[in-house]
Design goal:
Strands 1-2 form a two-stranded parallel sheet. The longest helix has 15 residues, at 85-99. The N and C termini lie far apart (32 Å). The chain is 44% helix and 8% strand. It is globular, with a radius of gyration of 14 Å. α2 (39-46) links the parallel β1 (16-19) and β2 (53-56). By secondary structure, it is mostly helical. The chain has one domain (3-99). InterPro entries: Metal_Hydrolase.
Length: 105
């Protein structure tokens, strides 16, 4: 989706899921048939509205990193892109917990 499409979906009440997997596949990987997304592009999308977004790794494939390591790597890279820790907390803790009916800490 484009940034404008994401904004429109959020305006209509949607939460947007961003996956880290597209930042890992591509040329030079075992999933080379897919184009790689840059971490900068992911960070740009996340900035649209972190309060209405969440991040998953979409990992678990045998040829990719373990999902926990992938999430750790994603978080570190987003922090390096300037995404504030408070937004990271929304994206990987608070929003997912709320969406599945858990009380977050």
């Amino acid at each position: 989706m484009t940034a404008e499409q994401i904004k429109r979906c959020i305006d209509l009440g949607a939460y947007i899921e961003y996956c880290y997997l597209p930042c890992l596949w591509g040329e030079g990987t075992k999933m080379s048939q897919y184009p790689r997304q840059s971490i900068g592009e992911l960070a740009g999308f996340v900035r649209i509205d972190p309060s209405r977004s969440f991040i998953s790794t979409d990992l678990g494939q045998a040829v990719m990193p373990h999902p926990i390591e992938g999430m750790r790597d994603c978080i570190l890279k987003l922090l390096a892109e300037g995404i504030p820790q408070s937004d990271i907390d929304l994206l990987v803790r608070h929003n997912p917990a709320w969406l599945i009916g858990l009380t977050h800490l």
